[in-house]
Amino acid sequence: MAGAGMATLGSWVPRRRWGREAVFLGFYRGLSALLARKSERTPRWVPACRPKSSVSFLSRPDLPNLAYKKLKGKSPGIIFIPGYISNMNGTKALAIEEFCKSLGHAYIRFDYSGVGNSDGNLQECTVGKWRKDVLSIIDDLAEGPQILVGSSLGGWLMLHAAIARPQKVVALIGIATAVDGLVIQFNQLPVEDSGKENFLFLHLA
User: Fold this and answer.
1) Which domain holds residue 119?
2) pTM exceeds 0.90 for this model
3) pLDDT (tens digit, 9 = 90+) per residue, 96-136?
4) CATH at residue 91
5) Which of 64, 100, 132, 194 has its CA 20 to 30 A from that of 6?
6) Do the beta carbons of residue 162 and residue 169 sit within 8 Å?
7) 69 and 54 in contact (C-beta within 8 Å)?
8) Where are the beta strands (DSSP E) in 43-101?
9) Rg (CA), the chain
10) How many domains in the chain?
11) Which InterPro entries does its entry note (predicted)?
């Protein structure tokens, strides 16, 4: 299903903007195949055993500094948006980086505020603050058109980023995208108390 979805997505994106249509469509199919191979053959603990490379930090006034890794390459660039409390050294983030290297595409992976090597207190973080993290990466680090790859909760943030930055986001790839998770939680809260108001404050502030 993931491979089919990626192929379908490639069909409606204005690929002529970059000229090489076959390569652009092939990116999604190749990415799907690579992730499948990684999940079948590579134990989850292997990436953590890889030698650590230097981490860069995005400084932001009045906001926590974000840890990131940036791979230079051709356009469109790819940004991986991790899931809930996941960091940029996970299996998917590293597998996509290897794939981008093989094709020569630019790539960015990063840690949310309060997660991994980024500054901030996790207990003070909200989905709204992580949305700002994603937009900071797009605005301050990414160059040219970008393909967003969102995993789980990162898929929800990916959609928000695409709406906020339509001029830079040209394609979306969701991996087990949790687009309705927060909506379901919100609808399950009782109406009698202030549960919904607290939910909105804690998650969307």
Assistant:
1) 56-187
2) no
3) 999 999 999 999 999 999 999 999 888 888 888 999 999 99
4) 3.40.50.1820
5) 132
6) yes
7) no
8) 56-60, 63-71, 74-81
9) 17
10) 1
11) AB_hydrolase_1, AB_hydrolase_fold, ABHD10_acyl-thioesterase
